[in-house]
Specification:
The protein has about 425 residues and is an alpha/beta fold. About 55% of the residues lie in helices and about 10% in strands. It has 19 helices and 9 strands.
């Protein structure tokens, strides 16, 4: 419940807090039930500023039993971590939604930090029931979220560097691309990076001996098939290819080595974060339930857990988690017009993980594959059928997590009565 304060000759008043955050300072406003600003200040983004904010809240009735609710436009950072200590409800409002609330109080489009703080406080005063506070996830779930998101960002950065390196090799070193063509994520393989570091240009690659290629493969950690792999690389390098002038080729080789060093660092980062996120995910109580689902691997499970959390009160029902993930369709009806389409406002990370999960489940579950085939027979495209499958499975996952039950193929995808008979 929001904190209440009393004035002489008046009854108790409920107080709401709004914070307009910035990089170096934050504007704070406290309003009562009537919308009157009872206090406002500007604090720094440091420990002293946080203490000043907590002192201001305490002066206006903030207690551990009845904390003052806070509205802010972000759900991360040290300020949010300080405010979430205890049972204080913190509401993270989308900046776009906050700008719409600002237009309710005037059409001049004026804007200021204290004014935005007042708008955020008034959001709680008038529409707190329409917004959800930040979920009360455990520290382990928060740690999984940090590591899983960092791992996903590192994978995206690695792919961006891989694309840049591939584009450069196409310009002057097609033999390298030909050698890794049969490998998945070939340029990310340690063998490819080791050989490219030893032979950064086609001229140097053509002069590499069998022994040198074997040594590069061993440095990369390869244990088996070294002799045959070295022969394959040597044959590719010895084949005739178009060449740049030697001076230009050496310059392009130096550029390639720069990208290769960045790719090496990105690959090591992905490996380290993958190991850390998987280790943290295995320690979570929901890991066993999530891994019982077909197509759900450890890293994919960590990404899903990072987005849905482990607060059982976060979603009212399975429909809420389906809408949050973007799996459930959205309906727009006006008069005789009715439109049903996919959601564009969603948790993109969870939606991306759900696409991979549904695709993996096609080969791991007969029921999931049959459901996908039925949707395709009804006219759905591939992505539509996968989204429909994800919509069904994310609801089942949330039910199993909240009830602590394992996945059951027969209950998740029951056979039609005619087939069962």
């Amino acid at each position: 419940m929001p904190a209440q304060t009393s004035n002489e000759g008046e009854g108790e008043l409920t107080v709401y807090c709004g914070i307009d955050w910035a990089e170096g300072h934050h504007a704070v406003a406290l309003v009562d039930d009537a919308g009157t600003v009872v206090a406002k200040c500007r604090i720094g983004d440091d420990a002293d500023g946080y203490e000043q904010l907590l002192g201001l809240l305490a002066e206006h009735g903030d207690t551990p039993e009845a904390p003052i609710p806070v509205c802010i436009e972000t759900g991360r950072g040290l300020l949010v971590a300080v405010l979430r200590q205890g049972k204080r409800p913190v509401f993270a409002v989308n900046p776009l939604a906050a700008s719409r609330y600002r237009e309710r109080h005037g059409v001049s489009r004026k804007k200021s930090d204290p004014g935005d703080a007042k708008v955020l406080a008034n959001i709680l005063r008038t529409d707190m029931h329409e917004h959800r506070p930040l979920p009360d996830d455990t520290d382990l779930a928060k740690a999984v979220a940090v590591l899983a998101r960092a791992q996903q960002d590192a994978v995206w950065s690695r792919q961006q560097l891989t694309n840049q390196l591939r584009s450069l090799l196409r310009e002057f070193y097609p033999a390298a691309l030909e050698a890794v063509a049969g490998w998945q994520n070939g340029l990310c393989r340690p063998e490819a990076r080791a050989i490219l570091a030893a032979a950064p240009t086609p001229g140097k690659a053509g002069r590499m001996t069998h022994k040198q290629l074997c040594a590069a493969l061993k440095r990369a950690g390869r244990k088996r098939g070294i002799e045959a792999e070295a022969d394959r690389w040597r044959d590719v390098f010895k084949a005739p290819h178009a060449r740049h002038p030697e001076l230009v080729e050496d310059a392009l080789g130096r550029q390639m080595l720069g990208l290769l060093r960045q790719l090496d660092a990105a690959c090591r980062t992905v490996d380290d974060l993958t190991e850390a996120s998987e280790e943290a995910f295995r320690q979570h109580p929901s890991a066993e339930v999530m891994l019982s689902f077909p197509g759900m691997g450890i890293q994919l499970g960590a990404r899903v857990l990072a987005e849905i959390g482990d607060d059982p009160a976060r979603f009212a029902d399975t429909r809420a988690v389906k809408a949050y993930s973007g799996a459930a369709p959205i309906t727009r009806a006006s008069g005789k017009q009715l439109y049903v389409g996919r959601r564009r406002i969603k948790n993109n990370r969870l939606h991306d993980a759900g696409y991979l999960w549904a695709f993996s489940a096609l080969t791991a579950s007969g029921g999931a594959n049959a459901h996908y085939r039925r949707r395709r027979e009804r006219g759905d495209w591939h992505s539509q059928a996968l989204r429909h499958l994800f919509n069904r499975m994310i609801g089942q996952l949330w039910h199993c997590i909240t009830t602590r039950t394992m996945f059951d193929e027969r209950q998740a995808f029951p056979l039609p009565l005619a087939v069962a008979a």
